[in-house]
Amino acid sequence: MAELRMRRVYEMGAANDDANDGLRVLVDRLWPRGLARDKVRIDHWLRGVAPSDELRRWFGHDPDRWQEFQTRYHAELRGSAHPDLALLRHLAASPGRITLLYAARDEARNNAVALKAFLELQQGAP
After folding, report:
1. Can you list the positions of beta strands (E) in the chain?
2. Annotated domain spans of the chain
């Protein structure tokens, strides 16, 4: 299984070609505001693994909704047949390192955190 890491796409150095990141995968449905596409290395933009617009709006980055957001998001992922999720599962099952890139300000409560937990559960990781 790949080592899964997360990084805020706006983080210092995130826009640069950081060899320690391995494969860089943007997991947001929307392109990060103010970030020029030619200024950042992103190997895959997998919009199909992002939470639905409805769920994203409901969550609104409200910390009080974090636990329920994870439950609902994981349910969406379990019910998804989107090719982006199939690709991410395939990549996560391979050796190496994957850095999940996200734009949210809250580094502890965002879709990349929930997605990483989902993938680790699927792979049987601790």
Report:
1. 3-8, 23-26, 44-45, 97-102
2. 3-123
